[in-house]
Amino acid sequence: MWKSWKTVIIRPYTAHPATILSKKPESRTSTAIVWFRRDLRLTDNPALQAALARHERIVPVFVADFAAEASWAPGAASRWWLHHSLVRLENAFAGRGNALLIRRGASLAELRRLIAETGAEAVYWNRLYEPALIERDRVVKAALREDGIIAQSFRAALWHEPWNLKTAAGEPYRVFTPFWRKLVGELPPLQIHAAPARIKGLSGKVAGLSPDALELLPKLDWDTGFYARWRPGEDGALHALDNFVRGGLGHYTDGRNLPARRDTTGLSPHLHFGEISPQQIRAAIVRRAGGIARLEADGEQVLRELGWREFAHHLLFHFPQTPEHPLQTKFADMPWRPAKSRAADLAAWQRGRTGIPIVDAGMRELWTTGWMHNRVRMIVASFLTKNLLIPWQDGARWFWDTLLDADLANNTLGWQWTAGCGADAAPYFRIFNPLLQAEKFDADGAYLRQWLPELATLPADALRAPWLARPEVLNRGGIRLGTDYPAPIVDLAASRKRALAAYATIKSA
C-alpha cells in the first residue's frame, strides 16, 4: 500500500482533473469570483485553480455569514483563529497582485451584489459539510444558476465525499475499521497544485471590510496564551507540517499519547480552517518516510488519524442530528443528573478545579492555549460524562467555544465515542480511571507540573492524587488541600459505580 502513494506536484494554472467542468471554457477576458470559506489557502485549492484555468480575472471574497451556521456558529476561540487567518490570506493575495474582499451578511445576497459590481460570470467554491451549510450552499448554487451564473463547488477538505463510501449493503459505515479499509484502498491520486505566483484581479477597486471590522477578537484578554503557541495562516500550517515531519513523525505512534511531549502534528486548527489539505499532509509524509520502515509505520498511523477525521464527516453527513442527539437512540433516556444539581460541578470542570489533577491540567491547557492533547480530551470527557454524570452535550458545547480546532464533525464523534452513544463508540462500561491514565501517560508528572504549578513540588505519585498523599508529603510540599488546590469534587470509585448503574438502565433498550 505505502509504495503506491506517489506524489505529483502540478504547477500553477494547470487544471486538476477535479476542476475540469462540463461546459466549454470561458473567454480568457472573463471574471470569476472565488468564494473562500474554510479553505483559507492558495496551495492545493481546487476552486481557485478552476477559476485560474478558466478566467482571466479573479475576485476572491470571504463572506462572514455566521447566521447560516445556526446554533453552531464559530465559538470565541475559533473566531480568534479566523481573524488572524484572514489577515494572512489578505497578505498572500496582496503579494500576488490581488486583494481579498471581506463582506458581511447573507451569502447569496452578498454574492449577487458582488456579481453586479464586478460583472463576474462564475462563482467557484470548495464544499463544507455541516448540515446547515450543505443546505445553504444548495440554495446558493441553485439561485446563482437560475440567474445565469456558472456556480461550481469542489472537494478540497477531504479525501472522499462523505456520500461516496458505503458498505456492501449500500449503507453508511458505523464502524471505523471497515470504513478505513475502504478509504485507504481508494485514496485519490497525490496531485498537489502549487500556489500561483500571480493572480490577476480587477483594475478598479471594489469595496470590502477589514478583518478588524468583523470584530472576531475577544474583548477580554483571555487569548494571550494563543499567540505564544500558534501561528494561524497557510504559512503557519506549512511551518507546522515541516516541524512535524522532521521531528514528531519519527515517534508518533507512541509519542502521540504522551501529553507532555510535542509529538502530535499540531495541524488540527490548520486543517479545520483549510489552511492545509489532507493531501498536502499525506504528500509530506510520503516524501519524508518513503523507504524508511520506522517512519513508514508512524506515517501510516498519522494517515489513520486523518481517516478518523474522514469518518467523522461521513457520520455527520449521514446522521445530521448527532451534534445534538445520540446516534444510539436508547441513550436519549440516559438518567443524567438534574441540571440544578450538576451546575456547580460543570463549572468546576470548566475552570480546571475538580481536584483531579489530570482533568484539571487538561482543562487549564484548553483555556490557556485553545487546544488540548487528544489523550487528555478522552480523559476529561469520560470524567464529565461518567464520573460526574453530566450530559456529553454540555461538554461538547464548552469545547466548541474554547477549542481553536472546534470542528462539528470531530467534536461530535469524540464526545459521542467517549460517552458510549455514538458510532464505533467505547463501550458504556469503559470509564477512564484518571489516576491510571496519568500514571501511564504522564509517569514523571511533567504535564501535571506544567499546568498545575501549585502542585509542582509534590513527587509524581502524590501529584497524581494529592488527596491520597500522606500529610507529611503535602506539608513538605507546602500544599494545603482544599486551599491551595481543591479536594476532589467526586469520589472516583463511588461515581464509577453510579455511572454503571445509570448505564444499566438503558443497556437493554
Protein described:
This protein is an alpha/beta fold and 509 residues long. Among the domains are: 2-157, Rossmann fold (3-Layer(aba) Sandwich), CATH 3.40.50; 329-504, Orthogonal Bundle (DNA Cyclobutane Dipyrimidine Photolyase, subunit A, domain 3). The protein contains 21 helices and seven strands. It has helices spanning 46-54, 76-94, 107-118, 131-146, 176-184, 224-229, 234-246, 252-255, 268-272, 278-289, 293-318, 339-351, 357-369, 374-387, 392-402, 408-419, 434-441, 446-451, 460-464, 471-477, 492-504; strands spanning 7-10, 31-36, 57-64, 101-104, 122-126, 150-154, 190-193. The strands form two sheets. The protein has a five-stranded parallel β-sheet, with helices on both faces. Helix 4 (131-146) links the parallel strand 5 (122-126) and strand 6 (150-154). Helix 5 (176-184) crosses helix 11 (293-318) and helix 14 crosses helix 16. The protein is globular, with a radius of gyration of 24 Å. The protein starts with 6 loop residues before the first strand and ends in a 5-residue tail after the last helix. Residues 1-27 have low confidence and may be disordered.
